[in-house]
Amino acid sequence: MIRNFALLTSTAMATAVAAGVSPHSFASIDGGTLNTADWAGQPVLVVNTASQCGFTGQYDGLQALYDTYRDAGLIVLAVPSDDFRQELGSAEEVKEFCEMNFGLDIPMADITPVTGTQAHPFYREVAQETGFTPRWNFNKVLIGPDGDVVGTWGASTRPQSPKITRAIEGLLN
């Protein structure tokens, strides 16, 4: 069941699908792992990112979204990917770029495939359950506290758009 379905706009409704997503681990850009099971009971916005994309300025919006809602429980996970050939050459370069240009402190995965047969298991599961796969950088997947996919949005939907903030606010305690 999709939580707060009425809060989603018609565009988001077209891509919102109830689907329980299993816990997954991502290699962290800081070393170690990020395990989504650690965020059980919290909404998580997962965004595939790239440092050399026309949408890279959305990092500011992702950080602002995190700053606004983190104390209420929101997690924003950036997943850098070179699937669209717009990411820097190493995790170290990505981390430095994001810290210097955007002051990011959101959780961030290492460079990770998000499409095709090499896609991270999280993205393969979302695709299998909902049909949604990133078609470009800065595609967004909102996972509810219960593990259901609440909504998906393409690159042109900004992180702080009312579509996304209303969906997030409906999930927060």
Report on this structure.
The protein is an alpha+beta fold. It has one domain: 3-Layer(aba) Sandwich (Glutaredoxin), CATH 3.40.30. It has five helices and six strands. It has helices at residues 10-15, 58-69, 91-102, 121-130, 162-169, and strands at residues 25-27, 33-35, 44-49, 75-80, 140-143, 149-153. It is globular, with a radius of gyration of 15 Å. It starts with 9 loop residues before the first helix and ends with a helix.
Q: What CATH architecture label applies? A: 3-Layer(aba) Sandwich
List the helices and strands in order.
HEEEHEHHEEH
- Assign a percent range to the helix content: 25-40%
Which term fits the overall shape? globular
Strand content: 15-25%
Can you identify the CATH class? Alpha Beta
Number of helices: 5
Number of domains: 1
> What does the radius of gyration come to?
15 Å
Span between termini = 18 Å
Let me know the largest β-sheet. Answer: 4 strands, mixed
Structural class: alpha+beta
- The low-confidence runs, each spanning 5 or more residues with pLDDT under 50, are 1-19
Chain-wise SSE layout:
Elements: H1 10-15, E1 25-27, E2 33-35, E3 44-49, H2 58-69, E4 75-80, H3 91-102, H4 121-130, E5 140-143, E6 149-153, H5 162-169
Parallel strand pairs: 3-4
Antiparallel strand pairs: 1-2, 3-5, 5-6
What's the gist of this structure?
With about 170 residues, this protein is an alpha+beta fold.
Fill in the keyword field for this structure.
173 residues; alpha+beta; Glutaredoxin; two-stranded antiparallel sheet; 5 helices; 6 strands
